[in-house]
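Re-running the complex after MR caught last week's input typo. The corrected sequence lines follow. Everything else is unchanged.
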Amino acid sequence: MSWFKRKTKGITTTTNEKKDTPKGLWYKSPTGKIVDTEELEQNFYVSPEDGYHVRIGSKEYFEILFDENTFKELDADLTSKDPLKFVDTKKYPDRLKAAQDKTQLKDAVRTAVGKSKGKELVIACMDFSFIGGSMGSVVGEKIARAANYSLKNKIPLMVISKSGGARMMEAALSLMQMAKTSVKLAQLADASIPYISLCTDPTTGGTTASFAMLGDINISEPGALIGFAGPRIVRDTTGKELPEGFQTAEFLLEHGFLDFITHRKDLKNRVNLYIDLITNQPIRS
Amino acid sequence: MEYLEFELPIKELEEQLDKCEIIGKESDVDVSETCKQIEKKLIETKKEIYKNLTPWQRVMMSRHPDRPYTLDYIKALCGETFLEMHGDRNVKDDKAMIGGLGKIGDQSFMFIGQQKGFNTKTRQFRNFGMPNPEGYRKALRLMKSAEKFGIPVVTLIDTPGAYPGLEAEERGQGEAIARNILEMTRLKVPIITIIIGEGASGGALGIGVGDRVLMLENTWYSVISPESCSSILWRSWEYKEQAADALKLTATDMKKQKLVDEIVKEPIGGAHTDRQQTFSIVRDAIIKSFDELKNLSPKDLVKKRMTKYENMGVFKD
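Corrected-run output:
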């Protein structure tokens, strides 16, 4: 005798008529929480379940920071060359082409000017999806030109870092972008134009060792990885297990390198609050 | 509310007054006359006690557990506009030294000060208001940032001293304080300093070189705490009251020696008895000082500040 008795007929859909749920409807955070992607989008790409800040790119940050997502992109057509004829498992031009096709981006940073809470702000935002957000000549030049725009028009500059570091395929040319961007930040500092550095997950290598750590304020998002040498390299070199929370934003705050950590939903308000305070202007509500 | 030893007559009268009021409420006896008399006596007693505080009693007042601390002042003065900033960009974020930007009215200020805790847990968290070198370096970083953007600096002093620890020495406690003092003498923006509690030695002066140095009425400021002074010179902790006398560490004494510029009156009974009034007095004092300084050119400002400190010291020629 069976415990249950089926009253209606069973599932009768034939295999070739079965439908998959479309991809991208759900997002799974690292702690295993499942979130509806639409809900995620409305929550500034932060999982409402566990507060996990999902990695996002320039498109999303511009949307969060610029009023009505309105901005003028600067130097949108700047693209990389292959000065060293670099070949690893792929030729560098092929790698660039593949990245461009995959991401619909020209390189690993986009720069733009627009209004944030009614006042102009220049933002340079890196895209990790483009060759790990690596910094080569294009990234250096675009950040330098964005800084020039800030200097010329006396507009605060914000750089959103999200990068594995300097781009190996441009070797020492990449390395010198650290110096090049620093030159521009020095000029901004001399002109007393505020520079805000937002370090997002992940900010490592040459990016950390240049513009990411040079803000009038350095800020970050909860849980972001920030460091010079990556955690794996530190572990392998020292042969030591890393302490819990090593190189997280919270770790950096404790060790004195960040001014504060902000939830993404408060980012726009807090950045503009800082700008109003440091420029001694009335606070925009 | 906690009472210090010399405040016990006040406590007694306040209890009497409470009882009297209760009797009035619960019975038909007319106590209003008695209550009035007690109240009158209470006011007189308060005046009498607080007018004649000994230096040691002032020291105790400055450490009163209910006294407002740095963040209480800043939050009351700036409200929602306060943006705390962290870190020395070197080794650590010192919880005993806090700082950040905030507005009083339309004017931005960079606030910096030592922070004490209000219970066992927060006292430990704040290291009892004793900064490490990174605290002084954080303070300097914030001052330099303020200077860069022409924002005036307000420092609030309340420390039993810089932390005398092993790591503090390794990281250069002395160097950090020295650097701050030097840089503060030549900072190109107005610096207003207020001693709101304890002003112990280099740990206080490390954020205490200012164009206007104000002392709240019930605070102390000196080269050493009376206890330590007693233990060094009398070889015993027992002589702290004499030491407090001898050090001339009260606001009145410091003003007399021209080492501070102004005394800021507290509500009768001390800053903690009426916090709101204290905050508004301090706010007015900051605004008044800033108004006197804001129109000076950076060059004049620094020159005046330097001259002021050059003239400190007493000697025979």
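None of the earlier attempt is carried over here. Chain B has a mean pLDDT of 94. Chain B touches chain A at residues 81, 83-94, 101-103, 106-108, 134, 138, 145, 148-151 (CB under 8 Å).
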